[in-house]
C-alpha cells in the first residue's frame, strides 16, 4: 500500500470541525492566537492544542513577535488533499459516465413488452 502520511495528517487535522473553522478563518489572512480563539467556547490552551496539530500537519505556521503569536495558513499544504480529490473525482466521473452510456444504449435483442389489458 502506498504511504500517504502527509495526506493522512492533513485529513486528520481537517476531520475536526473546530480546526476546519480555524482554517476557514485563516483564509482571510494571518491572525493572532487570541483573535483565532475568540469565536470558540474553549480555553486558550485547547485552542493552542488545535493550532499545534494544524501546524504539525503543515496546514498552518506560527510566528512569535514580542508577546504575540500569530497563525498563518499554508495554502500549499492543501495541495495534496486537492490532488487526491481531483484524482478520485475524475475516476468516479469516468465510471459514472460509462454506466450512463451503458444504461442509455438500447438492447439489440430486446423485445418490447406488450401493454397489459385492463380487466
Automatic annotation (TrEMBL):
Entry protein name: Transcriptional regulator
Record domain HTH arsR-type: where: 1-93
Stored PROSITE patterns: HTH_ARSR_2
InterPro entries named among the record's database cross-references: ArsR-like_HTH, HTH_ArsR_DNA-bd_dom, WH-like_DNA-bd_sf, WH_DNA-bd_sf
GO molecular function: DNA-binding transcription factor activity
Amino acid at each position: 500500500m502506498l504511504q500517504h502520511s502527509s495526506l493522512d495528517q492533513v485529513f486528520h487535522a481537517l476531520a475536526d470541525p473546530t480546526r476546519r473553522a480555524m482554517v476557514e478563518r485563516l483564509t482571510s489572512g494571518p491572525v493572532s492566537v487570541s483573535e483565532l480563539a475568540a469565536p470558540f467556547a474553549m480555553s486558550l490552551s485547547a485552542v493552542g492544542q488545535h493550532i499545534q496539530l494544524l501546524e504539525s500537519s503543515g496546514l498552518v505556521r506560527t510566528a512569535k513577535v514580542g508577546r504575540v503569536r500569530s497563525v498563518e495558513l499554508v495554502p500549499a499544504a492543501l495541495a495534496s488533499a486537492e490532488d487526491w480529490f481531483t484524482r478520485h473525482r475524475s475516476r468516479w466521473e469516468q465510471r459514472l459516465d460509462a454506466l450512463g452510456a451503458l444504461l442509455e444504449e438500447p438492447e439489440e435483442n430486446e423485445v418490447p413488452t406488450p401493454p397489459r389489458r385492463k380487466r
